[in-house]
Write a structure and sequence with these properties.
The longest helix has 27 residues, at 2-28. The chain is globular. The protein has an eight-stranded mixed sheet, with helices on both faces. The protein has helices at residues 2-28, 51-62, 76-86, 101-114, 140-155, 157-162, 193-214, 244-257, 261-264, 266-273, 300-314, and strands spanning 42-46, 66-71, 91-95, 120-123, 166-171, 220-226, 284-286, 289-291. It is α/β, with parallel strands linked by helices and 322 residues long.
């Protein structure tokens, strides 16, 4: 009887704290409040075929923007669905494989030839898990999450400057705070892979901030965002090496405490369209609010080393460097 009472008390406190935690999450969810339209604006979203990228594309198309979905998978159905739902015919899909520097260069060349302006570049595409190497002999997770967007942004800078005021957004994560990033392991497959993910997300924040510094006075801003814990396709492969029981527990947690893709896209949209951010650059946003940076992202010497190493790894030519 005593054991039963103790069990009931423990259960009561667990339920109480779960409800309290859920309430806290609901009350602190960021909500994009701007009513700005995007008529005449061109937005390029990598990984726009599904998840956060698709939801971001859908919302911005609904605001009247011309949308370019860049994805390694066929995005025709996603494009047609967005056109049908928003009645906005200015949506196009293009093939982009961030795990291939050649694909990135071909894609960037096509964009420059086809588009007169680029008002917003959202580097959204990412992997949650991969222990593989790419055709460029680099860790797939680091190349897709960081090096690919690093190269792509450099190649599209002239178009972004021409379109100023324009914005660059890097989708990062609070996982950036869990890292062991060094100049020596940025091009290595690490174990556990969760560290590789955190390292790549730290690189996103570093990259956004260095672009912000180097682009001062050009009218181009650069920020990074944490969309939150969202149930998207990135998590379907993120923990494939875990036992089924652990995966089930993870998905239950995600269902209870995670955001919907609509909620997760709010910070992306906020940074893409809010007039209050027209001149804000070099910030890391969480729930539509500036957040403090990981310690390493504030170490100027470390940041410069990561930037230079990234230039080397993606094979930037002298004339392409900032």
């Amino acid at each position: 009887m005593i054991n039963l009472n103790i069990f009931c008390i423990v259960l009561y406190f667990i339920v109480f704290f779960v409800v309290l935690f859920k309430l806290f999450l609901e009350l602190t969810k960021g909500c994009m409040k701007s009513n700005c339209l995007m008529l005449g604006k061109t937005v390029l979203i990598t990984g726009g075929n599904s998840g956060l990228g698709y939801q971001t594309a859908l919302i911005l198309a609904g605001r009247g923007a011309k949308i370019i979905i860049a994805d390694k998978n066929d995005s025709t159905q996603s494009k047609n669905r967005i056109i049908q739902e928003t009645k906005n015919p200015n949506v196009k899909s293009k093939m982009l494989d961030l795990s291939s520097f050649e694909s990135i260069r071909i894609f960037a060349k096509e964009i420059i030839e086809e588009e007169d302006t680029l008002d917003v570049l959202i580097n959204n595409a990412g992997l949650g898990y991969s222990g593989l190497k790419t055709i460029d002999n680099l860790p797939e997770l680091m190349q897709v999450n960081h090096l690919g967007s690093f190269l792509l942004t450099h190649l599209l800078l002239d178009l972004l400057k021409k379109s100023a005021p324009s914005r660059i957004i890097f989708v990062s994560s609070l996982m950036a705070f869990i890292n062991n990033l060094t100049i020596k392991n940025i091009d290595k497959v690490l174990s556990p892979l969760s560290l590789s993910y955190g390292n790549s997300k730290l690189c996103n924040i570093i990259t956004a901030n260095v672009f912000a510094e180097k682009l001062k006075g050009t009218g181009v801003t650069s920020n990074s965002v944490h969309p939150g814990l969202v149930n998207t396709p990135i998590f379907r492969n993120a923990h494939q090496d875990l036992p089924k029981s652990s995966l089930d527990a993870f998905y239950v947690f995600l269902k209870l405490f995670g955001k919907s893709v609509f909620e997760g896209a709010q910070t992306n949209i906020h940074c893409a369209i809010s007039k209050s951010l027209e001149k804000v650059s070099g910030k890391f946003f969480v729930d539509c609010t500036p957040f403090f940076l990981p310690f390493k992202a504030k170490n100027k010497l470390f940041v410069q080393e990561i930037w230079r190493k990234s230039e080397e790894l993606v094979g930037l030519k002298d004339e392409e460097k900032l």
